[in-house]
Amino acid sequence: MKSHFVCLTALLLALAACDVPITSSDPTEVAYIETLPEGVIALAAPNQNLQAVKVLPEDGCYWYLHDGPVEATLLPLRSRDGRPICTRAPDEVAT
């Protein structure tokens, strides 16, 4: 009976480690945009997740959540010609 309890506990711990939530309890974290502007949708290259996009205050650019086979990570939202889509000019970011 004790060995079953140990095995069950180990199994539950192993399964709990498999799924880490992406959400954060940090109140300063930027939320995802619910509705993207039509201009951004028109500029965005295909094969990018337009359902989970946010603008980071550090650079003023749009970033999307890429859910890869190993981990989920934020990637810059790019136009069809490969340029990042931003809300302000690059020289404004440097100041």
What is this structure, in a nutshell?
The chain is α+β, with helices and mostly antiparallel strands and 95 residues long. 27% of the residues lie in helices and 15% in strands.
What does this structure look like?
This protein has helices at 2-16, 38-43, 90-94, and strands at residues 53-55, 62-67, 72-76. The protein has 95 residues and is an alpha+beta fold. It has one domain (25-94). A three-stranded antiparallel β-sheet has the order 1-2-3, with no helix packed on it. The termini are far apart.
Q: Strands across the major sheet, in which order?
A: 1-2-3
Which strand-content bin applies to the residues? Answer: 5-15%
The number of distinct structural domains comes to 1
Could you give a short account of the major beta sheet? 3 strands, antiparallel
The whole-number mean of residue pLDDT values reads 80
Helix content: 25-40%
Low-confidence stretches: none
Signal peptide: 1-19
Keywords: Signal
Protein name: Lipoprotein
Q: What brief labels describe this structure?
A:
95 residues, alpha+beta, 3 helices, signal, Lipoprotein
